[in-house]
Fold each of these.
Amino acid sequence: MWEYTDKVKDHFFNPRNVGEVENPDGVGEVGSLACGDALRLTFKLDKNGRIADVKFKTFGCASAIATSSVLTELIKGKTLEEAMKVTNRDIAAYLGGLPEQKMHCSVMGREALEAAIANYRGGGTAKHEIEGNIVCTCFGVTDKEIERVIRENDLTTVEQVTNYCKAGGGCGGCHGEIEKIIERVQGERVREQMLPPPRRGGKLTTIQKIQLIQQTINEQVRPALRAHGGNVELIDVEGNKVVIAFRGMCAECKISDFTMRGVVEAKLREFVSESLFVEEDKESLEQGHEHGSKS
Ligand code: FES
């Protein structure tokens, strides 16, 4: 049995905006009866370009009905640009959460909306356009759709991908390909996060410099120290002086001086600025010992 929140139950038992708008400006369809879920969304704009009326029809489970109902509530009164900013996570959050196995319902709502807006703007087919190459033939899901759910929802396993877009939920023949896509997208995300913050005129502002120092410590230094039972904290930044404090095994370590120069300082010079130098905050170390001996 799925655990549903009261809000999901409310929108399932009393769905809002069910049906079809008369003479709609946009129509969006997603899913198919063969795959178990289908959703049709129609909307009409007022003279100011805001969504005056929106209705849905769905063939699906309790979550499909509840997420479609909430979607219509969330976008009513919005411009199309504002409506496009509603994500599947917004829909799930409004409902107080969804069982992860049902997250694909929230994705389906967002896709139906995109199809309806594309239909209004381009006047073409109401069907959700599927871009990319099919990876999961059981459910007709493409690499682009898989990439998108991974990126937008920070997914890391095949099971999660199945929960969010159904890919992989049939014969399992596509699992290897999905794993490769997860590795690629998550690798790209890490590299993006590693990029330094935007520079102004080629020079870091003080805040950007501190952020980049903290980021470098978090990503380049701390994991290596943690692997040996140690840790490091950023205490202060004064000009080019970076004050740190070692914790755990590093605080006791006889070669902490080497770690400070050869690891912390070297990484900060590589990723932030050649002119940085690092000093250890002995006062904080002593306080750490005092706290440690009291506890
Ligand atoms: S090809 Fe994806 S589950 Fe069968």
Note: Confidence is low (pLDDT under 50) at residues 291-295.
Amino acid sequence: MTLRQLAAFCESFTTAPSPVLYELERETYLKTMAPQMASGKLQGQFLRFLSWMLRPKRILEIGTFTGYSAICLAEGLAEDGILHTIEANPELAHFGEKYFTKAGLNDKIVAHIGDAFSLIPSLEETFDLVFIDSGKNDYAALYDLVFEKVRTGGFLFVDNVLWDGKVMTDAQDGDTRTIQAFIRKIQTDERVENVLIPVRDGLILIRKL
Ligand SMILES: C[S@@+](CC[C@H](N)C(=O)[O-])C[C@H]1O[C@@H](n2cnc3c(N)ncnc32)[C@H](O)[C@@H]1O
């Protein structure tokens, strides 16, 4: 059994995404250069479930892309909850404008266009949940930047930490070594506890103690 077969099997026993997410994924595949960056069905539903379980009041997402994971996470928000999502590429803004409205989440999602490093310091919020899903080279610096804005007992989720399995090898490329260093940093950070889950490309769930 390959990992691809395992993922397909798990997807076949996972509730189908909403029609809006289905349409968003389709448009993402038609109109973007790297559509596989969107969370997709299995990880999307997993994030949605985690959010429903936590019922957060404040979520920060770094790396909106076309808005798939933002919609999944926002669905689990507490009644008066808000999700802030940050995307550096202004050419993607129209996806959020269209699909956050279609999903009925316009009043719950605040979409920021700009660089996360410039925008995060200006967010005057304490977050229950932060989802880091942007450039892999930025993970450690973003983790450090956002850490003090996460409440004690709050969570950070970070995506793509298995890097197609390469983190388990001695691959010498920069991306692999950066992610290896990042997960080692988390594993040795005494301020948190963490669990690395092999969903899609690997998701590390971190709880601030
Ligand atoms: C993997 S995609 C996000 C996928 C999305 N979270 C999902 O699951 O559907 C990463 C996104 O992060 C954005 N990004 C990269 N560096 C960034 C930065 N410093 N600030 C804001 N966005 C950034 C990229 O433009 C890209 O759209």
Note: Residues 120 and 146 are 7 Å apart (CA to CA).
